[in-house]
Write a sequence for this structure.
């Protein structure tokens, strides 16, 4: 399978570049392990902890994502443990650092599976990292693997389950809104790798289905830090709307350049949320995008959970673009699956994952669509504001993943 | 000229001036001193950090831009005295040591951050109309500052007594020392001067993007490529190298795919270095 990258590439250069230190720091949130032996597959009845591995990037290029992931993982596990654990057993969370480097991911994933003998691993940041560990964890390791990153789609590996958004879930409602607003001509642009290309492919399909016309499609290198030619091409396209998937840092001069340069159409994309908008300054005003969570959505359970998280981790980053709601979702859907299966036995949990569903989640209800290994998500359409906040235009309700894993 | 043409010319001037600004400090440290300074990007980052801190604490990015060269120069002087100085005769050691310093600075900045980037506003926001095209006012300021900074650097190295001593030291350290020049201080001062220029670059460009740990590191490849194409041993060589790389990088995407044009520019640079290993300006041979 091709080595792809998720939208997490968005953050790659927004943190420490270069090879990282493999800290491999383990963190035990529940009570310490008694004898270190695996309690795998023995089923309920015991009160021995269930070991869960969390793999992310605490250092290196994606360090900020890792900070966010670790905080939400600890928060969620603590909450599950405070409410009786899973099958009556507490979860022991072991967090490891992949240092934003696929080779390190391989090393720490092997530790989780062979040394720590975890029952499940959650975590992916870039697709290159996921590709580096999936056979170690879910293949040879015979361990359930949950992937929370929003990405380009197409991951159907054995024992592997995705809880992040795939392109159609963000793109379709956004394009539909642009068409409703009267946009007929569209300009598409992004960085040259699989995530932007797949998103723009989905956007083009939806635009043409809806009677719109794509008047231009251009890509810049992943390494770009500035994008003046895209600004010129966007403005001279005179399109009614632009759909862009440009990752940081080039997205900042792009948005500022297009808005300041006098482009009058609508600007939409998949990478806008409260954690990124402030970088665009006042030029964030009016940007359109759909996510599985915004801080301003009107959902009492979400508000209560995010407030509890903020209280416990006042400084930790949290947001849709950092996959925070997806980590919470992944841990709870797994809890539901294990409890439905009645044990942590891999085959039984896999079968239960296929139809796992849960309502009390950050961002709203979610469920695995049987046969797809991907989740239906409650999505929201937002209009970004000059102060970085998001005005929710529409509660889009449940959005199914399309075209994943040969669903019938 | 159509607004489209004016915009294109402005973009070429803007991108090229930014690269020249980034390369200016490197032209002193790598070009003239011939220290392979892999933490050059982090000296740029520190300049950006100064601008950010001035904005956060004092509410003035402009003040940060004015202070950044001095603050980063001070850091550069300490770095030269403690680390760089040990590796003048050991190029591989200098590569490793400066890479480690750069890594450490990036890691510290990352550890202090809790978001994907910190916005830093430009002291002058908005656009300026030139012949029907609206261009970024701050980018225009950068172009002017780059012209002034290059002129000031060139004049201080060629027309002042201290510039003469710096050039004498870099040319022949033993002869300079025998002539009564404090060569240790010259090395420290020259490195600090290169660091000051990097700090200025960081503080000037951070409002175009945002503060993030690899702000400088991301530009290290085009910066080093400029120095290699331009040639070692002079100040103007690397600057010409930056122009030779910057203009086609900015202009080619007007007609061909951006990704392809980047490949073509780097390929051309490699072919050029193969044919003319000394670079555009080579005073050693």
């Amino acid at each position: 399978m091709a080595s792809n990258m998720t939208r997490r590439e968005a953050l790659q250069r927004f943190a420490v570049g270069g090879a990282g230190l493999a800290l491999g720091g383990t963190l035990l949130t529940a009570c310490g392990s008694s004898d270190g032996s695996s309690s795998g597959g023995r089923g309920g009845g015991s009160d021995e902890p269930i070991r869960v591995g969390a793999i992310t990037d605490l250092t290196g290029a994606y360090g900020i994502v890792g900070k966010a992931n670790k905080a939400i993982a600890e928060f969620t596990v603590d909450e599950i443990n405070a409410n009786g654990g899973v099958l009556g057993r507490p979860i022991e969370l072991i967090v490891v650092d992949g240092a934003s480097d696929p080779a390190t991911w391989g090393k720490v994933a092997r530790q989780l599976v062979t040394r720590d003998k975890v029952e499940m691993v959650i975590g992916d940041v870039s697709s290159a990292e996921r590709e580096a560990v999936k056979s170690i964890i879910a293949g040879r390791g015979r361990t359930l693997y949950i992937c929370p990153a929003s990405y380009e789609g197409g991951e159907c590996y054995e024992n592997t389950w995705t809880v992040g958004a795939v392109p159609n879930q963000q793109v379709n409602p956004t394009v539909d809104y642009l068409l409703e607003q009267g946009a007929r001509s569209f300009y598409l642009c992004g960085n040259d790798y699989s995530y932007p290309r797949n998103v723009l492919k989905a956007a083009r399909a939806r635009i043409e289905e809806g009677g719109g016309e794509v008047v231009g499609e251009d890509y810049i290198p992943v390494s770009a830090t500035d994008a003046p030619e895209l600004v010129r091409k966007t403005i001279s396209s005179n399109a009614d709307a632009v759909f862009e998937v440009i990752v940081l840092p080039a997205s900042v001069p792009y948005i500022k350049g297009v808005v300041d340069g006098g482009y009058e159409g609508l600007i939409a994309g998949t990478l806008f949320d409260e954690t990124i908008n402030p970088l665009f300054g006042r030029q964030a005003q009016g940007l359109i995008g759909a996510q599985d969570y915004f801080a301003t959505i009107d959902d009492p359970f979400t508000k209560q959970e995010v407030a509890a998280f903020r209280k416990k981790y006042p400084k930790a980053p949290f947001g849709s673009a950092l996959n925070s709601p997806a980590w919470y979702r992944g841990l709870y859907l797994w809890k539901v699956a294990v409890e439905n299966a009645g044990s942590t036995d891999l085959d039984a949990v896999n079968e239960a994952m296929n139809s796992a569903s849960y309502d009390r989640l950050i961002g709203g209800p979610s469920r695995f669509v049987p046969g797809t290994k991907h989740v239906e998500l409650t999505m929201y359409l937002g209009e970004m504001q000059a102060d970085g906040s998001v005005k929710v235009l529409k509660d889009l309700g449940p959005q199914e993943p399309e075209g994943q894993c040969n669903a019938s | 000229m159509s607004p489209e043409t004016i915009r294109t010319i402005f973009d070429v001037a803007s991108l090229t001036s930014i690269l020249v600004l980034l390369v200016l400090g490197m032209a002193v440290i790598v070009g003239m001193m011939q220290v392979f300074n892999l933490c050059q990007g982090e000296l740029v980052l520190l300049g950006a950090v100064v601008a950010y801190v001035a904005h956060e604490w004092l509410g003035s990015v402009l003040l940060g831009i004015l202070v950044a060269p001095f603050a980063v120069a001070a850091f550069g002087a300490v770095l030269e005295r403690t680390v760089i100085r040990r590796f003048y005769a050991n190029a591989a050691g200098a590569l490793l040591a400066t890479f480690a310093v750069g890594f450490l600075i990036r890691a510290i900045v990352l550890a202090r951050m809790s978001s994907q980037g910190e916005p830093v506003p430009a002291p002058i926001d908005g656009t300026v109309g030139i012949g029907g095209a609206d261009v970024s006012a701050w980018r225009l300021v950068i172009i002017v500052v780059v012209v002034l900074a290059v002129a000031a650097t060139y004049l201080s190295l060629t027309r002042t007594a201290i510039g003469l001593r710096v050039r004498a030291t870099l040319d022949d350290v033993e002869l300079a020392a025998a002539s009564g020049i404090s060569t240790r201080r010259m090395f420290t001062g020259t490195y600090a001067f290169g660091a000051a220029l990097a700090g200025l670059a960081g503080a000037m460009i951070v409002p175009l993007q945002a503060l993030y740990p690899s702000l400088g590191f991301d530009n290290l490849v085009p910066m080093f490529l400029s120095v290699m194409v331009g040639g070692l041993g002079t100040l103007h060589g690397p600057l010409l190298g930056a122009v030779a790389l910057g203009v086609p990088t900015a202009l080619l995407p007007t007609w061909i795919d951006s990704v392809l044009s980047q490949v073509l520019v780097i390929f051309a640079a490699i072919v050029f270095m193969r044919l003319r290993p000394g670079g555009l300006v080579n005073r050693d041979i």
Remarks:
- The first strand of chain A starts at residue 50 and ends at 56.
